[in-house]
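Table S7 (text form). Paired inputs.
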Amino acid sequence: MNILIASIFSIDSYSRGIMPDVLQSQLNKFPDANIYYLTCSNTFDVCYFNIHRKPDVCYRCKTGVKNTLKLVSGNFKHIVVSDIISAENKKQAALFFSDKSIIGFDHIFENFEVGAATLSTYISRSRDRDLLDADQDYVKELAINALSIYLGLQEFLQKEKIELVYNFNGRQDYVRAVLRASLSKNIDCYNVERARLGGNIEFYKNVLPHNIVYKVNLVEQCWRESELPEAKKKEIGANFFHRQKTGESIIFPSFTKKMKKGEIPDYLVNGNKNIVLFNSSDDEFAALGEEYKNPFFKNQNEGLEYLTELFGKHLNNYNLIIRMHPNLAGVTHEFVNEIRELHRRYPNIYVETPESGTDTYALMEHAEKVISFGSTTGLEAAFKQIPVIMLGKGIYYFSNVAYIPDNKDEIKNFLVSDLKPKPLRNALKFGFYFLNGGQKTKYYFEGNEGKGIFFKGDRIHSYSFLQRIKAKIIQKSFQLFRIRLKF
């Protein structure tokens, strides 16, 4: 059997521990297989984790890979991206983008949505959802590099008769290239993702981890196939939401520790009914294609504008409280500033900024209804048996957790109607999956709060004294003299 395990990103990502675990597990399962382990290892100067092209980051990434692979037992071949891409691949990729001054979502090569994959990196790193500064040189360089990987990997997969591919996540440019190249050759590609902290992973066959239907199927399968009694599963599902409320980071970083427990603003008791809207940072999903396309609005800002006018002009006996997502703190792009200013429009519109210490859960408990664009707060509200109106896409879109309007006109009807909470069991399934789903790893472990990634008990990455000195020399040479040293 011929297997490729791609670990393109090997620094500042939990992939640096997850993919070696996949490698060792495959070596144990198929000791006689031909297994290739693919890394970037400074093939390129720029990537998702190094958009500023710092040579010391590349050195630490490359060196960390070498250190980690020494811990792996069994026969495999470590290859780097430069081994599989040719001068012709690079030339063809550059030619494809030669007449494109700026990368766009519509830039597709064969089955590879290279433009969207590249912009996914740009948006995540810059938080520039509206692509106001996407003409920077590194964006086009990322796209050309990604297409080079796609072309080179197609040839490699065919030449080495690869039968199975493992890849990490698959969302950004270089790793999306691995997914699409595999599928172009009708080879199954499993995108591997972290299920939660501690050492638990998920496998997504031929789709991105963000695939809503696939995720729902995993949730349903986990619930259905569990041998635990129904009552026990419900107890575990509820436990997730209770732990989440305390500020424990289980899957996602928790922001509740920065909030003042029980603190609510005075306007919550001004006599009006309260509807709380929890927005999400939709820049995270801006490059995920049609699946995450909002069914009602171009983006969340357009939705917030619509709701502000609706409440301000026609629903005067309601408060609309917009709780901005805490991870928007420090983001200065115009789409964020527009949300901050919405409270100036009408007296019944209130905005809790990302920096606000107001307790999210206290807000939720004073809400008659909750509006969600797909964030997990919608699940948490559903667990509290508060009716949720969903105006975007998210992992619970098809799970009967929230009310989803058939059209924009139905939004008002939902807002003023006496809605009953959706069945609690539907939310509990997600809580159960978040604590029990996925596959337990044997060699990879991630410390509390995501601090410290370990493989076979060794911290990844750890460096020798000499390696740390080399990294510092490389860093200073670049900072002071713009010299890119390579060891």
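Next pair, protein 2 of 2.
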Amino acid sequence: MAESWIGRVVQGQMYLLLGHRGWLTRLWRAPSGRLWVSEGGTRTGVHVEASGELLTPRWSFAPLPGILSGVYGLDESNVFAFGQRVQQPGIHGIVHRWDGAQWSETPPPPGLIVGMHGL
């Protein structure tokens, strides 16, 4: 079993933002300052820091299917969680999009997605 931790150092003091027994795969910080963290282990989905307070965070979790390897967004109405869907036969990409109100699955590009960035 693995452990994943997200911390922040402010003026020489370390603050624990999220400690988790599992596999946190990537994080994205929205322009508003909120953190979005993908999880891709035995439980898969996205953790979202709900309060905007990085020193005293409150997290929500949205379970999503697939083995998530990352999360990336342009703003909080365009957030993408990506990874792979294990099917028979083979492995295929999976993409979920947050539109500001709900998650929905969107068609992935061909092949596996290993990273996502944009402007």
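The radius of gyration is 15 Å.
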